[in-house]
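The methods section describes the discrete structure representation at length, but only in general terms. What matters is that the chain and its backbone geometry are given together, residue for residue. For illustration, here is how one protein appears when written out as sequence plus structure tokens:
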Amino acid sequence: QVQLVESGGGLVQAGGSLRLSCAASGRTFSTYHMGWFRQAPGKERELVAAISWGGSIYYADSLKGRFTISRDNAKTTVALQMNSLKPEDTAVYYCALKWTGGPYYTSNYDYWGQGTQVTVSS
């Protein structure tokens, strides 16, 4: 019904930058929010950043000022610009989509990408 395709993950040195992209396709006839999650080894999945259908933005407190979420005008692609990366940012990053009707800044999203590995070396 809805497919999310991610790109941009990889290996980067501490202090470097990386840009993740996610394209949504399929039966996206309704309005929706999009977000980025990450899960590090041994830790729970956490919401990194999210953008609502109307353009409101949420960031996790721990990475405000380093990460930026953005969206194209068609609202079919969402990007996560990651700057000043730290080893603790190492995780699998997931793109996610949820239909509007609930908050964009909570974790109960409806569709998920395959995940992309981000590794930050020290």
Q: What stands out?
A: The radius of gyration is 14 Å.
